[in-house]
Amino acid sequence: MSLSKLISLLLVCFCVSFAQDVRVYAIVKGQVKKVYVSEGQRVSKGQTLVEIDPALYIAQREMLIAQLESQKLTLEKVEKDFKRYEELFNRDLLSKSEYEDWKNKYEKEKNKYIAIKAQIDELNKLIEYCTIKAPTNGVIKKLFVKEGIFVNGTMLPQVLLTIEER
């Protein structure tokens, strides 16, 4: 066998890819609404595999949106008051202690608003995570879920399925 044929044969051997199992997890909780795949099915990266009902997160988000609106009104009122007291302080008509009290009250209300907004952003992300997508191309090797069951990936990420990467 010639050296060039031997090198070609070695290159072919090293280019063979080996299948690798990829576990797909849920980090949310809820009832499995729909399983779009079955064992042995070929899937593409980004393909929807499982949909978990986001109703729990949507309800929490709606409640927080109402709180955010209320907090916005409170913040606007406290901000106006703070600006008035700041103006009095700047004209030496208000003690530093009273000024700092109003400044702290304003900062506290502003931080409450920011915290509620962050919770809404987090819930939006969790709602997005209720749609489980394939992280890679492959074949569904094993399904661990079926429609109607409750998953609770919030305590410990829950394995939904295994994809054999190809």
From TrEMBL:
Matching Gene3D superfamilies: 2.40.50.100, Helix hairpin bin (1.10.287.470)
Residue stretches making up the Multidrug resistance protein MdtA-like barrel-sandwich hybrid domain: 22-152
Coiled-coil stretches noted in the UniProt entry, renumbered to this chain: 61-126
InterPro entries, sorted: MdtA-like_BSH (IPR058625), RND_pump_MFP (IPR006143)
Domain of life: Bacteria
Presence of the UniProt keyword Coiled coil in the record: yes
Keyword annotations: Coiled coil, Signal
Gene Ontology, cellular component aspect: efflux pump complex
GO function terms (MF aspect): efflux transmembrane transporter activity
Signal peptide positions on this chain: 1-19
UniProt entry tagged with the keyword Signal: yes
NCBIfam families named among the record's database cross-references: RND_mfp
Family (UniProt): Belongs to the membrane fusion protein (MFP) (TC 8.A.1) family.
This protein's name: RND family efflux transporter, MFP subunit
Organism: Hydrogenobacter hydrogenophilus
